[in-house]
Amino acid sequence: MVDTVFDRHNDEYGRFRGVVSSGLARCVYRTGSRVSGAVGMSDDRSCKGLGCRGLTKQYFDGERLTKVLDGVTFEARSSCTSFIVGASGSGKSTLLAIVSGLLSADCGTVSLDGERLDRASQARWSAVRSRKIGIVLQQFPLLPALTVRENIAVPLQVLGQCGRDIAKAVRAASEHVGLGPLLDRYPRELSVGQKQRVGIARATVHQPSLLLCDEPTAALDREATLGVMQLLRDYASTSQSTVVIVTHDLSLIDERDQAWRMDNGWLRPWRQPRDGGQQA
Q: pTM for the whole thing?
């Protein structure tokens, strides 16, 4: 679904958001952009979840070598919300870009639901992203010329589903996030919290087994934040999917969640502080 390259390497969030945003636009406006289901769809469904081993990524900035990821290893379980916390520039969004196939690691492995993907072709990655991965971003890059209904339908149009199936799936996804009465509105007519709900509905309408969320609550007030977090936890548990959330807000994490801290390219297990309200 999204297969462009990164234009910049000094702004990790800009890379991740820019690639996803431009890819969504192309999915709507280009022709013949259906994704074939015949490309290597042999997964071991008995092994669900996301696994990464020894992921390393580094850049040359002039004569200086910057290591963004340094041997990152973790396993995010299905039916669970998993958090990666850390300051801006610590490598969190670069990690998300690698596990979604938008960026290649210099070394290390990535597996999703039992299928190793780090050596997959671009065609296979495109198929995996379109069918098995959903992405939620802080700035919810909605397409302004499309209604809520049409924005949510984008992933299903890329998959070439028929109109009846699209309508049914969009209705179910919109009702799950409380957007039923707003389907015919345009993004400019929505509140910030409503826009993020549209982003979640669009990212989950095709029932992906992996949902990647990059600072999904950073632009929201506390009430909207709690609502979005409940939606993400509900999706993980009801769909038996893996939900990975990148954030700097430790207060979002509770005892049910997996959590790691990213610091200068290193990823380490993390436990929630008792006061639950600190910032990473």
A: 0.81
